[in-house]
Amino acid sequence: MSSPVSKRSVLKLAGWAVLAASAALAGCGKKEGEGAGAASGSAPAEGASAAAAPSGPLKIAFAYVGPVGDAGWTFAHNQGRLAVEKAFGDKVVTRIVEKVPEGPEAERVIRDLVAQGNTLIFGTTFGYMEPMLKVAADHPNVKFEHATGYKTAPNMRTYDARTYEGAYLAGIIAGGMSKTGTLGVVGSIPIPEVIRNINAFTLGAQSVNPQVRTRVVWVNAWFDPPKETEGAQSLINQGADVLFQNTDSPAVLQTAEKAGKHAFGWDSDMSQFGPKAHLASSVIHWDPYYVQATRDALEGRWRSGGVWWGVKEGAIDIVSISDKVPAELKARVEAAKAGLKDGSFAIWKGPIVGQDGKEVLAKDVVADDKFLGGLHVYVKGVEGAVPSGQ
């Protein structure tokens, strides 16, 4: 997850005030920070150890790119933080800082969190990678955790969720529910993570209807409800009757609701924002990883490296599937989910071709994480071009 976030007040969409208030109250279990404007595998990889287990309460800080009330990405991370508090009680003290922009401001905030005595710091967006590396080099006794990144240090490791698995499961439903055969995706930032999700969504849909086509509108932001709304409406105007997103607010779902179309929730359960339009929500459960990382730090077992968790580890799921979805489609979803969990099914298994007709994966070849981490082309069935420079 990654990229700049709008600092405008965006909780004015219908129903958001209630969610924002409840999320803010939930986030106050320990110490809570102000906004920045005011202020692979199944287990961690081996590597150099950072500091030993702390002697007092472990001070943990979370830097968020969006507001806790976004109903999506940041909300999901904060649920993981609350799970840590519940699991460890007075052994930990947590703090958050919301709406931290990527770049120099992120470095300032992270340095401030270190100065406050936090010795385990989570940065929850791709663009914090370089700032965190700089701060980590200056504070070898502090443990840093960076979401969705690929660079590590002796005291900094990476973690991610296989969101493409949830996208594929949503695609199965979309492929069976679309009447026009045209799907729409509101994309955030054209990086491999998002391109991978668009492709997986399309592959899932094509497993039900091989003739499905996917159109994409890029908004170049993770959380910008007005732009997300415009993008969703544009896709509807182009004939898309089922919408998907890789953005953080419920705006796409709400737009589909008003237009009488279907859509999905992303990162968190968004069903309440468009109950008639909502087909299902692809969600991330950060709880397992955050609890494990905290336990590692408390018990002196923390190591550098990287992890990438998905359905198998309980980090990815699809929830609140609508009653409108036929039993046959639900069964397909459950079968795919079971295969992802036990390893008998691979989404990225050849033959897979790109939109130009060239082979991306040969027959029976299963993509490795290196391939997935560098994906920058659309699969056949996705219309348009990946934005230049990516």
Give a short synopsis of this structure.
The protein is α/β, with parallel strands linked by helices. The protein is built from eleven helices and 14 strands.
Walkthrough of the structure:
It is a single chain. With 390 residues, this protein is of the alpha/beta class. It has two domains: 16-162 and 286-313, Rossmann fold (3-Layer(aba) Sandwich), CATH 3.40.50; 163-283 and 315-373, Rossmann fold (3-Layer(aba) Sandwich). Helices cover 34% and strands 18% of the residues. It is built from eleven helices and 14 strands. It has helices at 16-26, 73-88, 104-115, 129-138, 163-177, 192-206, 225-237, 251-259, 287-298, 327-342, 369-373, and strands spanning 58-63, 92-97, 120-123, 143-147, 156-161, 182-187, 213-218, 242-245, 262-267, 278-284, 306-309, 316-319, 352-353, 359-361. It has a six-stranded parallel β-sheet with strand order 2-1-3-4-5-11, sandwiched between helices. A six-stranded mixed β-sheet has the order 7-6-8-9-10-12, sandwiched between helices. A two-stranded antiparallel sheet has the order 13-14. Helix 2 links the parallel strand 1 (58-63) and strand 2 (92-97).
